[in-house]
Design brief:
With 526 residues, the protein is mainly α. The protein has 22 helices and 5 strands.
């Protein structure tokens, strides 16, 4: 497959353009949902205010938000702001190609690149103004550097970085760039998302399983004519260097971990939930029947095992398997304390999965069987992508704001049951040239300056509306002839329905307008 260089070049650019087209198609068509609006709300602050607010109200590290802060110079529309994620996602495609070439030649590189290009999950998060595409890019670059180092015999030597060697041309420079790249991109993976910590953790397990045992055997055997194998030490030192680069973020990371020990919206892991995660990895939204999902995933995992077996003469299958399964196992274990298992935070682990899957596809004995397997992958991706493009936004704040704005009276008040929903609503509402008094229940999230209110505590996940919030609600609506109530995330923030029940009891409901993810109610004073 693709042994001819001109053919390979043609396929490479074709796949790259396909990936680009899928990632920019209708990129600005859907309304921002809350998480995207939170990214914008934090990133639009003065540069000195980005990190304090991020630590206070999010559970993510700063890299994406700082990049988005500068990207906003190009504009603040849905298309422009999401284009940053699309750029990261498109850049990941040639990185995947380069990894594949290192592992098994052009055929493997092109096939892995193609699977990544059409993967519904990656297209989705390429159109999401969040940090998941950046996380995947940095993890892919770290993996590329690791694969290069696995092929470098000088990693066995005692010296970590190679000295300039005119006889070796630029080989010494490439080797040192790969070493630095492993440390830098491992650190950037962690600085892209806190769950990126499972990258160095998985690599540490790889070192312990692959490099330490032969070093111990040599040590126990005593002196030998062969030079000692110091791969375990050099790889460990590169991980330590990555850790040093992350030290400035460590105190804030520990603060975020401590603050999130309480309630959170992610459900506890379940067998069905794990099946959905892997279905999203490989086939998007199909199939829907649990039995069919199991059969489908069984075929994918069989190909992954075949791919790992085909690369067994190298150390790389262990690295790929640990980077594929390590983050999932890490999030599963962490979920024993507080659920964090989520498909989108594991998105970067699909890169080693796709590489092994591609290697397995190439090992199928018959070309017809290869074609059928690839056709199934393409058909599932096409169906899932059509479903994604046709589906509405996760939360249609654009439509909600457009419905309220022309009906708003001069003395009306807008109330949010999820106080943080005001961020998403205001992105569209203020664009319409209207303004109103707004309040969150049980507390305000946005102050008079448009940033965090001083009474708003960190990590809003514990800010459920209870009966204790009703005196504040009464005070907020008092003196206003009309109340607009934005009701969202009710099972998390108003599980007992106390806010809506109080409004129905004390005010007159005049209108109800449901949208995806949010319902707007109009109440008048009796």
């Amino acid at each position: 497959m693709a042994k001819n260089r001109p053919t390979a070049s043609f396929l490479f650019w074709g796949i790259l353009l396909l990936g680009l087209a899928l990632r920019i198609y209708q990129i600005g068509a859907k309304s921002f949902w809350f998480d995207e609006s939170a990214s914008i709300w934090i990133s639009q602050r003065p540069l000195a205010g980005v990190l304090p607010e991020l630590v206070r109200s999010e559970e993510n590290p700063p890299l994406y938000y700082l990049l988005l802060h500068f990207w906003m110079a190009w504009g603040r529309s849905e298309t422009v702001l999401r284009a940053l994620s699309a750029l990261f996602s498109v850049l990941t495609l040639p990185v995947m190609y380069l990894i594949g070439i290192r592992l098994g030649g052009r055929a493997l590189g092109l096939l892995a690149m193609f699977i990544l290009a059409v993967a519904p999950m990656h297209v989705h998060y390429a159109q999401d103004a969040r940090d998941y595409a950046l996380l995947t890019l940095n993890a892919s670059l770290a993996l590329l550097c690791m694969v290069i180092l696995l092929e470098d015999p000088t990693m066995r030597e005692g010296r970590l970085f190679r000295r300039p060697d005119p006889a070796a041309g630029v080989g010494w420079l490439r080797a040192n760039v790969a070493r630095l790249g492993m440390s830098v991109f491992t650190a950037l993976t962690f600085l892209s998302h806190n769950t990126g910590i499972f990258l160095p953790a998985s690599v540490a397990v790889f070192i312990a399983l692959v490099f330490v045992p032969p070093a111990l055997r040599n040590w126990r055997a005593g002196k030998s004519s062969a030079p000692p194998d110091r791969r375990w030490l050099n790889w460990t030192l590169l991980l330590v260097l990555a850790g040093v680069l992350c030290l400035p973020w460590l105190p804030d990371f520990l603060f975020q971990v401590r603050e999130l020990r309480g309630g959170f919206w992610i459900p506890a892991p379940s067998f069905g939930g794990c099946l959905k995660i892997f279905r999203e990895f490989f086939s998007g939204s199909v199939p829907e029947n649990r039995r069919m999902i199991i059969l489908d995933l069984g075929a994918f995992f069989a190909l992954i095992v075949l791919g790992a077996w085909s690369l067994r003469k190298k150390s790389v299958p262990w690295l790929l398997l640990l980077l594929a399964w390590g983050p999932f196992a890490g999030e599963l274990l962490a979920s024993l304390a507080r659920p964090i298992l989520l498909s989108r935070t594991l998105i970067w682990s699909t890169v080693p999965f796709y590489l092994l899957l591609s290697a397995g596809l190439l090992q199928l004995r018959f070309r017809l069987l290869q074609a059928v397997a690839l056709a199934v992958i393409v058909a599932q991706a096409a169906f899932s992508l059509k479903s994604y493009y046709d589906s509405p936004a996760a939360e249609d704040w654009r439509a909600a704001a457009a419905w309220v704005a022309p009906r708003l009276g001069p003395h009306d008040v807008i109330v949010f049951t999820d106080c943080s929903g005001q961020i998403a609503f205001d992105y569209y509402f203020l664009k319409l040239g209207v303004a109103a008094e707004e309040h969150g229940i049980p507390v305000d999230v946005v102050g008079a300056d448009g940033y965090s209110d001083t009474e708003y505590p960190p990590y809003q996940y514990s800010n459920q509306a209870t009966a204790a919030a009703l005196p504040r609600l009464q005070q907020v609506v008092s003196g206003h002839p009309r109340v607009w109530f934005c009701y969202l995330h009710s099972k998390d923030y108003d599980p007992s329905g106390v806010v809506l029940n109080w409004l129905d009891t004390h005010l007159a409901r005049k209108a109800e307008q449901p949208y995806v993810g949010v319902t707007i109610y109009q109440f008048d004073q009796p």
